Amino acid sequence: MDLSAINPVLLIASLMVAATPLLLAAIGELVVEKSGVLNLGVEGMMIVGAIAGFAAAVETGSPLMGFVAAAVAGAALSLLFAGLTQLALANQVASGLALTLFGLGLSALMGQRYVGVKPPQMARVDLPLLSDLPILGRILFSHDVVLYFGIALTAAVWAVLKFTRAGLILRAVGENHEAAHALGYKVVKIRTLAILFGGACAGLGGAYISLIRVPQWTEGMTAGIGWIALALVVFASWKPWRALLGAYLFGGVTVVQLNLQAAGVAIPVEYLAMSPYLITILVLVILSADKSSAPASLGRSFHASR
Amino acid sequence: MIRLEKRPQPSRAWSLATPLMAVLATMLMGGLLFAALGKPPVEAIRTIFWEPLFGEFAFYYRPQLLVKGAPLVLIAIGLSLGFRAGIWNIGAEGQYIIGALTGAGVGLAFYPMESWIIFPLMILAGAFGGWAWAMIPAVLKTRFGTNEILVSLMLVYVAEQFLASMSLGLMKNPEGFGFPGSRNLQQYDSAHNAELIAGTGMHWGVVAALIAVIFSYVLLNRHMLGYHIRLTGEAPRAARFAGVKPARLVLFCLGASGALAGLAGMFEVSGPSGQVSIDFNVGYGFTAIIVAFLGRLHPVGILLAGGLMALTYIGGDIAQGNLGLPSAAIQVFQGMLLFFLLALDMLTNFRISIGKPEVV
């Protein structure tokens, strides 16, 4: 075992990279759940985003186009979910599972031609002075643009939910859809928009895995990150900044676990690989005592009888 | 103007018709998908649904139907109990893996002793393993209110890692020339889940699946506990007032589905699959979710749905060989089926009315 091989600066830098897909997916799902909808299809939307983004980036040669395509693909898949739950009033848990099963199959089908292909590389943002700072520059200021976008998105979602009228309406729909309907807000329309936003974010998160974090395409490569993102929303008690904190925590666990594997710790690889999932369970147990912050209409279908 | 009106009671006729309509719609969309992949659509659909039953080599494929259908039905029956009560065990894949490991573990521990007692012990161990794995989300839910969906799913990934560790380590065949994977239980008579009648595909797992169907039917229709399950699903508040204890229901539903999934895993590892290996699990635990819904969470429906889903697996394999249809296409096909089913389900609970709403 050689722990000295682990470089703390690189560790923190790669922690931020590992956390970004989680953060993107969790922020999207947070908005969806704030509107009172539980979309369990995050994993499916992420993996479809991962392959759609990968394919688009390879075909066009531009990673940025890949991310755009991933967001569109994620949103398109979430539109299916919106149709099922908002128009056909299907059970949200079952529809979310269907989305995940379908997405896993679809991505495997789409991805056949892309196994073993190398995607175009995303350029790093080079901030003139900041990137040259001794340690902080390496940790904080030499990443790709999507990573910063994730953090900016967290801030934006926080601000919109807290300070704007649109955020207030979204929260009202999530807390009590009957009252919101009575006030004249279009519950189904608002929820559909929230679902589309969640789908786009999950798609981006998936593409971040296939284009930047790994970067290559393998079947089922999201490996439960979508589900961890769902747990993260509970961990965050539906608060954006806590989602950021949670994403970094889980990113940290993943990276440390990988580093320990590489360093050859005496614990078998398989048990190290279990750790992110076990820690997710542990965190869920600790935090699920307090459910007061969950949106009151979460998971309930809305049907305007009049 | 088109509006939806909630029916006072779910329509019986529609609840029987929607699965059939969903299958037809899936065939149609599946045909389009296959055409888009450059395969002859009619030929592909015919290969999937006709070839295994009545084709030239049907004598070989028909037994496969039982082999593939049994674990699906066994798992789906367990899941349906919980789904009816709004308890979502989606980690059946993990319970299936652990059941296989505990079952095979007992068998391997006795090797090379021959005795009639070994196989029954393995069955018990398999059921216990699945039950114990499902008890984790169940106890966490009843004690701490933790979401059982997320916990049971996380445990699938844990179980997969555990399976890898076992097949590379503790359960690795000492005479296997260093290859991963355990001894082959098919070559160990006392632990082999052999065909009961040669050439039919009928093994103990099929028998267990049929028993599970009957038990679940009796439970849901003739037993107080089954009534409580249905009541909790349809009117949770009323169930509370009627004295149903939600915690007991969670423990029972998750425990039963875990035990059944564990059994399915144990019958698979000691029979058709034969050994513990890294890629032992093939997603039966997830496909069983589709089976449970396609069967309308009804025991008899699940039996039929399990048969149909087994058909798509086998037909998909044939289409892969004959037409070069990618195996992922079948996965998409199965996912589509669930989509159509959920979408058409609206017709059971709502009436579509056209025209102006009446003024009350």
UniProtKB/TrEMBL annotation, chain A:
One of its GO terms (molecular function) is transmembrane transporter activity. Pfam families: BPD_transp_2 (PF02653). The chain crosses the membrane at residues 6-25, 37-58, 64-84, 96-115, 135-161, 193-214, 220-238, 245-265, 271-289. Keywords: Cell membrane, Membrane, Transmembrane, Transmembrane helix. One of its GO terms (cellular component) is plasma membrane. InterPro entries: ABC_transp_permease. It is a multi-pass membrane protein. It is found in: Cell membrane. PANTHER family: ABC TRANSPORTER PERMEASE PROTEIN, SUGAR ABC TRANSPORTER INTEGRAL MEMBRANE PROTEIN-RELATED. This is ABC transporter permease. The lineage of its organism: Bacteria, Pseudomonadati, Pseudomonadota, Alphaproteobacteria, Rhodobacterales.
UniProtKB/TrEMBL annotation, chain B:
The lineage of its organism: Bacteria, Pseudomonadati, Pseudomonadota, Alphaproteobacteria, Rhodobacterales. One of its GO terms (molecular function) is transmembrane transporter activity. PANTHER family: ABC TRANSPORTER, PERMEASE PROTEIN, GUANOSINE ABC TRANSPORTER PERMEASE PROTEIN NUPP. Keywords: Cell membrane, Membrane, Transmembrane, Transmembrane helix. InterPro entries: ABC_transp_permease. It holds the Pfam family BPD_transp_2. GO terms for cellular component: plasma membrane. It comes from the Bacteria. It is found in: Cell membrane. This is Nucleoside ABC transporter membrane protein. It is a multi-pass membrane protein. Its main location: membrane. The chain crosses the membrane at residues 12-37, 69-87, 94-111, 117-140, 149-171, 202-220, 249-267, 328-347.
